[in-house]
Amino acid sequence: MSSRSDRRRLTTLEEQAYAEAKEHFVEHLKQFPASRLIVERLEQGVAKIALAANMAASQTSQESPIPTDDGTQWHRSVDLTDNICLCHRPISGGVEYAVLEYFPDRGRHEIWHRGPNVVEVLRLFVQEQRQALQVWTEDLASQVREFLEEKYPRQNVSRAASSFMQLLRA
Amino acid sequence: MEPAPKTEAKPAATPAERLAYSIQEAADLLGVNYFSVYRLVQRGKLKVCRALRGKLLVPRAELLKLLQTQ
User: Fold this and answer.
1) Domain limits of chain A?
2) DSSP labels for B25-58?
3) How far apart are CA B37 and CA A27, in angstroms?
4) CA 20 to 30 Å from A17, out of A97, A143, B18, B67?
């Protein structure tokens, strides 16, 4: 892979800086790929999830409805992540769908997106997840630059920072 | 009960008294994973500012506000 060959060309100092960044930001390196995988699975599964939600909406739910702050009540259709689910509720002339997030400390659900078109609701949600990953990437790049500039003042270790950021794309 | 003796020097600021936190510190304080905080930022539920090099900082006041609205 090109990232691997680029890394081979790092100088000893850059290699050291790269290793230090990896050690310092190890938790990001653990959490980012897992979060990205969740988003990718959601992106690839929109049609399937929408179908499952349609089927759930056509059946009578045995679970207790989920109340939200606006006074509406929802039935769980599909779990999207540990604390986020796609829900539905009957409305006059059809079904409304919503992505709800559960906040354990509040003990209640909050609506992310809602609407009669389940695919549209899902797409908006997935799009926001992708944008959140982008915010993460940009912030981490800034943090890595800051970390290395402080550790290696007056030395150019930008290639070490770039190599580190390539780990996120691996 | 005797009153606590007056101390001359102020105690050093604890991490909880800081004005702002990095995203990972905010995640640790809130007890959630990093992605949850970035999602809150992306949705505008948690206001952040940027340090000189672009690093995101979560003001302590915003964390408290988030917890109060919770």
Assistant:
1) 12-169
2) HHHHHHTS-HHHHHHHHHTTSS--EE-TTS-EEE
3) 14
4) B18
The structural architecture, per CATH, of the domain B18-69 is Orthogonal Bundle (1.10)
Rg of chain A taking only CA atoms, in angstroms: 22
Tell me: the pLDDT tens digits for B43-66? 999 999 998 888 999 999 999 998
Of the residues A136, A137, A148, A165, the best mutation for testing chain B's interface (the one with the most B CB atoms within 10 Å of its CB) is A136
Domain-wise residue ranges, chain B: 18-69
Q: Which of A167, A27, A64, A135 has the alpha carbon at shortest distance from B40?
A: A135
User: Which pLDDT band holds residue B15 (cuts at 50, 70, 90)?
Assistant: low
Task: Record the pTM.
Answer: 0.82
- Between chains, do A31 and B54 touch, taking CB under 8 Å as contact? no
Interchain pair A105, B42: CB under 8 A = no
Task: Compute the average pLDDT of residues B5-25.
Answer: 68
